[in-house]
Amino acid sequence: MQNVTSRLLVPSTAKKGDLIEIKSIVMHPMDSGFVKDSNGKTIPREIITLFTVAFNGAQVFKMQFAPSISSNPFVSFFVKVDRSGTFEFTWTDQDGSVYKNQAQISVT
User: Fold this and answer.
1) What is the mean pLDDT of the chain?
2) Domain 5-107 coded CATH 2.60.40.10
3) What is the distance between the alpha carbons of residues 23 and 61, in angstroms, rounded to a whole number?
4) How far is it, in rounded angstroms, from Cα 56 to Cα 52?
5) What angle do CA 29, 104, 65 make, to 5 degrees?
6) How far is residue 1 CA from its own chain's centroid?
7) Where do the domains of the chain lie?
8) Which pLDDT value is given to residue 2?
9) Rounded distance between C-alpha atoms, residue 10 and residue 21, angstroms
10) Where are the beta strands (DSSP E) in the chain?
11) Once rounded to an integer, what is the mean pLDDT over residues 81-101?
């Protein structure tokens, strides 16, 4: 698998009890295994199967992907924050590779 990068949009600050929007995108081809290249050869399946987000170690979001998801999947969701901490984003590839990123938030 090639180098996988991600981009996150997480507020750096929030007030206790705020509902915040988190946005993420991971750069990944998400090849379904059904597409052919210019030579007519099938491009092997290569997809991320699981995306999870934990806040201070507790899971707050989980999403399973299927081959029909487009390349570079974008995900947006909301979470309520009551304290400062770290969001840890984890993408798991079908081959077992795991890609991670983190974002901090300060809650007052």
Assistant:
1) 93
2) yes
3) 12
4) 13
5) 30
6) 16
7) 5-107
8) 56
9) 7
10) 5-9, 13-14, 19-27, 48-55, 58-64, 74-80, 85-93, 98-107
11) 95
